[in-house]
Write a structure and sequence with these properties.
The structure holds two protein chains of two kinds. Chain A is mostly helical. Chain A is about 75% helix and about 0% strand. Chain A has a domain of about 210 residues. Chain A has a two-stranded antiparallel ribbon. Chain A is globular. Helix content of chain B is about 60%, strand content about 0%. The chains are: A mainly alpha, B mainly alpha. Chains A and B meet through helix 6, helix 7, helix 8 and helix 9 of A and helix 3, helix 9, helix 11 and helix 13 of B.
């Protein structure tokens, strides 16, 4: 069998097949090693795929050999390949990191189940990214979501509130998924197909209430999954009480995949032929700006660092929506760039918090007192990733803010100019909440209270993985061109504009 | 007006179930009741998909020996036979079983849904044109015009409410769907049919098939729904173990007491 012919299926199939095997292993180190190995293999495959797509253009793979409109196809262009590499790349760094953290936070006998759920989550996320079939998206979304609910609930060993957080996440996530299925059903009724490219062709020129209703259901459903502002209530508690490694993984991947699939539906399935799209994009502009401010303000007043960073994640979704709402190649590219860069930032920050939780047993802001002297490496990690979140030059945060601002000003309408200044203003809020953390870290080590004990140095593996992620923040901040080039080309493909070979 | 509403009774069932389910999810504080509401909500979607694919008088899309033989007598080549068996594929619904309307609706249906019947008589050349376009009952209901009467007068009835649509462009790929389905399914194996029992006794030329795809899809969705309910109930059990209650108000109060020492600190009700 030709390896390259089957390549598009492998990033999904490998973790899917590997997941149940992890369940059969004895608790402890084995399932972790297995999951890590699988994540590395998946990452390698994804990079190969990205290279193939970059050189040869979009790949269409018929799953099981069933031809296009009836069978399920995987359609991989640069947008998927980029998000796919991101998801598997984050997995390849977070899975090795997870070992010590999981040993501390998860019941020993549950570790095989934990890594099984983690691999299923990875398989679901890669599946959503790669599939070209609208209903298949739902199935993979639910595969990853069900795994996610379980993983969030596993934080119950440390804090029982993980259970209620997981339950609320389950209710909201299921409502979102069901809305999405209703939308798919309406689309099927209007067109008689589920294939995304086919859908686009047959939706061309259709502008009746059936299609509008389908659009509204799909966007609302995906809005719930990606924590668009008024639908974000599940996210902060779920991220706060989940096990540290899970928070790092989810914050960097789950909402990002949802943003990708939103882009896919907005532009590949509906496209600009669909007049209602403009209305939705204007709506996104308002929601994006509201998200940037309301969630950032909420973040400023949090006393729990994970909660603070979770609200910051909701705010960052606002930037991505703002980029999408411009409806230009630059805007969508900026959105994709921020998807990648924010994943690096939040993964690094949550990994650093995970190290603090491992040694001090808390993610309250008080636990960070004197961290600069206690854990200098981890503290520097938080500082660099925090600066990146704010958007300081030479970090990835700067690259995405710069791309977003230039896209906004290139569009040039009055609303857009105002939005541009609001982006700058909301970045100041990011300065405020990151400074709160950094200020506490610089305070002297507490001499009394629950955190006044001597702590051992964090495990080398965790620090190493943290610094790989922090390094990515700096490296891609300085070498921004590859990501920008891919994102530009991907955005051009998504919007159906021929970008030429300029990049 | 009433006819119009009654004809779409399946959608009213769906909408009512959906709203009841959603209301229960939002208004009930008991976690198990929330899950019950969630299940109702999901069930409405199952009903929606299933009724969407239902065709008046249609049967399960199983290709029988009698069916095969009857069409063979009409002298159609093999590929067209398998082809025709899917002509009901447009998700036609609505007309199923409301007494007085049935006769009238059925005649409208024959013309409107393009033709499982007439095509079976042999004019398979035009097969791709009328039937393959999916039924647009709902969209015609929602669009400006579009009753079955209007539809019945037009050769390509489903298209009238899709402005700017080129019928050829739409139906040609759809026709290919059908051909692809026919050729990729194992039904073209003649020998297998000889051994099949005779399920549909007479009048086989007129057999209409319901669209199987939404049913298959919803089987998947049901599995997902069962899994979600299982995970949700498992969480409810764990919550009861950890808190001793599954009432949302009490859970929130317990969390607030643990954190702030008093039951009420912030506004209650963050569950969507």
């Amino acid at each position: 069998m030709d390896f390259f012919a089957q390549l598009p299926a492998l990033p999904v199939v490998v973790p899917f097949v590997a997941a149940p095997l992890a369940l059969l292993m004895p608790p402890g180190r084995m399932p972790w090693l297995w999951a890590t190995l699988v994540s590395w293999v998946s990452f390698g495959l994804s990079l190969l795929l990205l290279e193939q797509v970059w050189i040869n253009g979009p790949i269409t793979y018929a799953m099981g050999g069933w031809a296009a409109p009836l069978g399920i196809i995987y359609y991989i262009d640069l947008a998927n390949a980029l998000v796919l590499s991101l998801v598997t790349g984050i997995a390849a760094v977070v899975f090795p990191y997870a070992y010590n953290s999981v040993r501390d936070e998860i019941n020993h006998s549950q570790t095989p189940g934990f890594y099984t759920a983690l691999l299923l989550c990875l398989a679901g996320l890669t599946g959503v990214t790669m599939t070209g079939d609208a209903f298949n998206v739902f199935v993979f979304l639910e595969v990853s979501s069900l795994a996610t609910y379980t993983l969030v609930a596993m934080g119950a060993g440390r804090d029982r509130r993980a259970l209620t957080a997981a339950f609320n996440y389950l209710v909201m996530g299921t409502i979102g998924a069901t809305f999405f299925v209703i939308g798919i059903g309406l689309l099927y009724q209007a067109t008689g197909t589920l294939n995304m490219l086919d859908l686009h062709e047959r939706l061309a020129g259709q502008d009746n209430r059936l299609v509008k209703a389908a659009f509204a259901f799909i966007i609302t459903g995906l809005g719930l999954k990606l924590a668009m502002l008024p639908l974000h209530l599940w996210l902060p508690p779920a991220y706060t009480y989940a096990p540290s490694a899970i928070t790092a993984f989810l914050a960097a991947t789950a909402t990002k995949v949802a943003v990708y699939i939103m882009l896919r539906f907005l532009f590949t399935v509906f496209g600009f032929d669909f007049p209602f799209l403009r209305v939705a994009l204007d709506f996104f502009l308002v929601l994006g700006i509201a998200g940037m401010f309301i969630a950032s303000l909420a973040a400023v007043f949090q006393d729990d660092v994970k909660m603070l960073l979770a609200y910051s994640s909701v705010a960052q979704i606002g930037y991505m929506l703002l980029g999408i709402s411009l409806g230009t190649v630059d805007g969508v590219a900026a959105s994709l760039i921020h998807v990648v860069n924010h994943a690096f930032i939040k993964a690094a920050l949550f990994m650093a918090v995970g190290i603090v939780v491992l040694r001090l047993g808390s993610h309250q802001l008080r636990a960070f007192q004197g961290l600069a002297t206690r854990m200098p490496w981890t503290s520097w990690g938080i500082v660099v990733a925090g600066l990146s979140l704010v958007g300081v030059p030479a970090t990835v945060g700067f690259v995405s803010k710069y791309a977003l601002l230039s896209a906004v000003f290139a569009k040039g309408g009055t609303m857009e100019i105002i939005a541009g200044f609001l982006i700058l203003a909301s970045s100041l809020l990011a300065v405020v909440y990151m400074m709160r953390i950094i200020k506490v870290m610089l305070e002297p080590v507490p001499t009394e209270g629950p955190f006044a004990r001597n702590i051992a140095a964090p495990p080398l593996m965790m620090r190493l993985m943290l610094w790989i992620m922090v390094g990515a923040n700096i490296y891609f901040g300085l070498q921004a061109q590859p990501v920008i080039a891919i994102a530009q080309k991907a955005a051009a493909t998504l919007l159906g504009v021929d970008s030429g070979e300029a990049f | 007006m009433w006819d119009f509403i009654l004809e779409r009774y399946n959608y009213w069932v769906v909408i009512m179930l959906m709203m009841i389910g959603l209301y229960i999810v939002i208004s009930r504080g008991n976690l198990v009741k929330t899950l019950v509401g969630l299940n109702l909500f999901q069930t409405s979607v199952f009903v929606f998909y299933i009724s969407m694919a239902r065709i008046a008088g249609g049967t399960a899309p199983i290709y029988t020996k009698a069916d095969y033989k009857a069409r063979l007598k009409e002298g159609l080549p093999q590929e067209q036979i398998t082809h025709i068996s899917y002509t009901g594929n447009a998700g036609h619904h609505g007309e199923a079983g409301y007494g007085a309307y049935e006769e009238e609706a059925k005649s409208g249906y024959d013309a409107a849904n393009g033709a499982g019947h007439e095509e079976a008589g042999g004019e398979s050349g035009s097969l791709h044109d009328g039937d393959a376009v999916p039924s647009n009952d709902l969209s015609s209901m929602m669009g400006e015009q579009g009753s079955t009467e209007v539809a019945a007068q037009q050769p390509m009835p489903e298209l009238h409410d899709m402005p700017n649509m080129d019928p050829e462009a739409i139906s040609a790929p759809m026709g290919m769907d059908m051909a692809a389905s026919a050729s990729s399914l194992p039904v073209s194996d003649n020998i297998a049919y000889e051994t099949l029992p005779n399920v549909i006794p007479s009048n086989v030329g007129d057999v209409i098939y319901s669209n199987p795809l939404p049913h298959v899809l919803i089987l998947t969705a049901i599995v997902v729904g069962v899994a979600t309910t299982a995970v949700g109930l498992a969480l409810a059990v764990r919550i009861r173990e950890a808190y001793g209650t599954i009432e949302e108000d009490e859970l929130e109060a317990a969390d607030n007491i643990a954190e702030f020492g008093r039951p009420q600190t912030k506004a209650a009700g963050s569950v969507g």
